[in-house]
């Protein structure tokens, strides 16, 4: 009898374990690379890398052609050392740095690397890319690409900018429905599974039937698709994702001004777009940062107005959602019109911007278009000078 009970326990375990893995099947994506990731509707995040003149010790170098090289480290968790060395060389004296070397095989040296030539050179910038590197992971080698922009105005002012040149894309199945998935390394470190509270540190994913940028979300613990919440797992190298219906997720409430019609917030849980009712909406328990908010309304003449506040980079707008509790987040109006004045070479210049209560960048639409630019009236104290000027966009 004991042996029979043990047999049934083992059989039950064997049946249960596969049923769980079926819900978590790997859905594979295809890798792509380009100089412009805007091809898939993403705005590339640009990272500034420190440039040094001192040649790194214990690193074998190629035979440089010039006398003045500069060096930099690209930080990535995809290699054991945590970084790859980069070197920039000049093939001609008194010219721009027009040769780039990167430790593409992560062996710690540059002597076995081939120089990458630029695809564009301007007076102050040199452009390289997409430049290929190869990561050795448990399943074998995987490719990744980077785009570089090197700025040099003189020997004391040099900057190296880097953006991701690769992404994963493919068809995934959700509840029997085919959708397109795009996965992007937004924080430019070679990995595709970074979760973070702050927008600049989190990778991006889009799963939808369209290429609408508004469907883009942070990589996180969860993702909302067609009104349902799913647990999300992304491979570090980006090759696949796993999705499973989220269960037993703890929620709390966010309290917003009743004028707010839509709010986007993100964190380690991912990013969510909520449309509050009577100022209330629900979010999974965790820490978030406000990304943007929208106020839509009509005036007494039935004119449609849309006010959007977009947060700039920084630590502002962070809030915590606790289980069963209500968290008040103050966003929206008032919006302030700020005028900046400057004087140069006998001329006065004025610039007008709309600024949110927490420093947000503000856009204003009237019936779907920009309203007429505002006017500026300048009047002297004695009233002898009294003129009105019109601002213009662009």
Describe this structure in words.
It contains one helix and 30 strands. With about 400 residues, it is mainly β. The protein has three domains: about 45-165, no CATH class; about 165-245, no CATH class; about 250-394, Immunoglobulin-like (Sandwich). Mean pLDDT is about 90; it is low at about 1-25.
**Main beta-sheet annotation:** 6 strands, antiparallel
CATH topology of the largest domain: Immunoglobulin-like
- For the CA atoms, what is the radius of gyration? 27 Å
In CATH's first tier, which class of the largest domain applies?
Answer: Mainly Beta
The CATH level-2 architecture of the largest domain is identified as: Sandwich
Strand content: over 45%
The N- to C-terminal Cα distance equals: 84 Å
Shape: flat
* Estimated helix fraction: under 10%
The total tally of domains equals 3
In round numbers, the mean pLDDT is 88
Give the low-pLDDT segments: 1-23
* Content-based structural category: mainly beta
Count of strand segments: 30
The number of helical elements comes to 1
